[in-house]
Amino acid sequence: MESTEVLIDCQSVWKVFGDRSREAIRSIAERGLTKREILQQYNCVVGVSDATLQVRRGEIFCIMGLSGSGKSTLIRLLNRLIEPSLGTVTVKGRDLSRLDAAALRETRARHIGMVFQSVALLPQRTVLENAAFGLEVQGVPRDDRNRAAEAALAKVGLSDWKTRYPRELSGGMQQRVGLARALTADPEIILMDEPFSALDPLIRRQLQDEFRQLTKDLGKSAVFITHDLDEAIRIGDRIAIMKDGVIIQEGTAEQIVMNPADQYVADFVAGISRLHLVKAHSVMMPVDQWRFQAPGLSLDGLPRCSPEADIDELIGTITGSGSDAIAIADATGIVGVVTTRNLLLGVRGEPDARAAA
Amino acid sequence: MDFNPGAVLAPVIDWLNANFHGFFALVTRLIEAILGGLEAALLVLPAGAVIAIVVIAAFFATGLRVAALAFCCLGFCWLAGLWQASMQTIALVVVAVAIAVAIAFPLGILAARRASVERALRPVLDVMQTVPPWVYLIPAVMIFSLGRVPAIIATIVYGIPPMLRLTTLAFRGVPTDLKELGQAIGAKPSTILWKIELPAAKPTLLVGLNQCILLSLAMVVLAGLVGAGGLGAEVTRGLTRMEMGLGLRAGLAIVAVAVLVDRLTRGALDRRKAI
């Protein structure tokens, strides 16, 4: 389902807040000042610093960062709720900064849905009216918009709650309405601003899985903001990690866990379970090396797994077979061997598992 | 040192009178026409019929409680022999409040959007609220002469500040995420105002309207001093003749009218909340 078509292209975007932001931007452009120098010289806060990212069709792109890292500012730059100070944001090939007010409204209404941490449901409207609100402001006739809203509510499992008011719903259900409202207008891109952060852990996990499934089924693209790395890993196809307004690393969950860009990321991923993240191809050793270590054993006697098998599956195979090693085979034949030692290193997430073996 | 702002203001009033007489005459005739029409409409039917209509309308618009209250309030005005004065007062208050809201509501929204507007308005509102109301009855009478028009102008001036301040407060209090939602779904500014901000601001706006109505009614008593007629005139008569009974009856009738108008507007505007 993933393709290389880029839906959101964000090039060297800056956002500077403060009374002298204009001067600060000029000195960034001309002299390349850093965030700290901007604060010292101009008393301006850099919200987002030189952010470049691309969101492709069909993927879920997570932006992970702690509070104050600029992630909420960054997501608002993607639909121009906040004007970038510098740099360009292109959505479906159209430069947002060049759009006039009407064209910008049109783009937001048709192409970019948004879900908020606070849900932002209108209290005096029913669930159905809330879900249909996006189409209502576009001037879609009542019957049409209600039909679309009913379909969206059915997707999030709230068909029985159409005539209720938001205050009658639990937090998790309210956020489902928020998601349904974003889906009703059928946009290609959904911006999710920490949608599940205020929910309790069990409901949160459930919604994470449902959200991922729904997004993939409908072929939507999403930018998902979170402060929780576990959540980013569960949901995201790719993850960008932000700190102090800077994207410090971008990649798949496995890339980030196995090769953290710096100590900050390393500290973050330290507590993450590798069981479902690390795949066989990251921990296996070459066949020759295994032959050297274990002379006299035959490859044919080993259980087999694919290079895409995760550590959890490998442990299951090894404990189930009584063997100390697994042969890793793809379509072309055996490409490597995973021993118990490799697995243990993999569980600890040591990037040099192969070198150490 | 002798500072006398009146020495400056009096010539200004004179100059206004001399040069804008036509305009003031037009305003006078316009207000007189609206007020007279409303008053005639309220008095064309016998009191019993008006009471019946109001009670039935109140029942369908809001419910049994307000209908019963309307019956008691209007019944008292009738039985106290103050029916005509009460209707005059209601007409005066309705017109004054309508004009005050028409001025205060947009200005209040503007002040909520722009801090500079609010900064400019605040001292003006402070003056309007703290200067004793009969002080600005004087220039109103000088320009519009005695009668209902200066009374209604003074009532409007008195009714604007609470409505304006609470409108500003109400629109400031609209949650940021709701406004952001409006922008994110591509709603026009006018749509955001009517469909998102106004419903969210409604509870505070209703408090503003309520204050506007009650302060206007309080002002109506003073308006009796300049010949506006209605219940204010009865109170004034009671005061000047030292007739305790008349003053008390008129005073209670004002309370009855205040309660009635307040509950009716609140009930009618706040209906959906009860669902």
TrEMBL record, chain A:
Q: What class of enzyme is it?
A: translocase
Q: What is its EC number?
A: 7.6.2.9
- Which keywords fit this entry according to its UniProt record? ATP-binding, Cell inner membrane, Cell membrane, Hydrolase, Membrane, Nucleotide-binding, Transport
Provide the ABC transporter domain boundaries.
Answer: 28-269
Question: In this record, what's one Pfam family?
Answer: ABC_tran
InterPro entries associated with the record = AAA+_ATPase, ABC_osmolyte_uptake_ATP-bind, ABC_transporter-like_ATP-bd, ABC_transporter-like_CS, Gly-betaine_transp_ATP-bd, P-loop_NTPase
- What topology does the record note for this protein and the membrane? Peripheral membrane protein
Xref: PROSITE patterns: ABC_TRANSPORTER_1 (PS00211), ABC_TRANSPORTER_2 (PS50893)
Please give the family membership noted in the entry: Belongs to the ABC transporter superfamily.
Q: How does it assemble?
A: The complex is probably composed of two ATP-binding proteins (TmoW), two transmembrane proteins (TmoV) and a solute-binding protein (TmoX). The complex is probably composed of two ATP-binding proteins, two transmembrane proteins and a solute-binding protein.
Q: Which PANTHER family match?
A: GLYCINE BETAINE/PROLINE BETAINE TRANSPORT SYSTEM ATP-BINDING PROTEIN PROV, GLYCINE BETAINE_PROLINE BETAINE TRANSPORT SYSTEM ATP-BINDING PROTEIN PROV
- Protein name from the UniProt record: Quaternary amine transport ATP-binding protein
**Source organism of the structure:** Paracoccus haematequi
Q: Tell me the gene name.
A: opuAA_1
TrEMBL record, chain B:
The UniProt record lists the keyword Lyase: no
- InterPro entries attached here? MetI-like (IPR000515), MetI-like_sf (IPR035906)
- Domain (ABC transmembrane type-1) spans 86-265
Under the GO molecular function aspect, what terms does this record hold? amine transmembrane transporter activity; carnitine transmembrane transporter activity
Membrane topology term: Multi-pass membrane protein
Stored Pfam families: BPD_transp_1
Membrane-traversing stretches: 6-28, 40-60, 66-83, 90-113, 133-160, 205-226, 246-265
What name appears for this protein in its UniProt entry?
Glycine betaine transport system permease protein OpuAB
- Main location class: membrane
Location of the protein in the cell = Cell membrane
* Cellular compartments per GO CC: ATP-binding cassette (ABC) transporter complex
What family is reported? Answer: Belongs to the binding-protein-dependent transport system permease family.
Q: Which UniProt keywords apply?
A: Cell membrane, Membrane, Transmembrane, Transmembrane helix, Transport
Q: What GO terms in the biological process aspect are recorded for it? A: choline transport; glycine betaine transport
Cross-referenced PANTHER family = GLYCINE BETAINE/PROLINE BETAINE TRANSPORT SYSTEM PERMEASE PROTEIN PROW, GLYCINE BETAINE_PROLINE BETAINE TRANSPORT SYSTEM PERMEASE PROTEIN PROW
Coiled-coil residue windows: none
Task: Specify the species.
Answer: Paracoccus haematequi
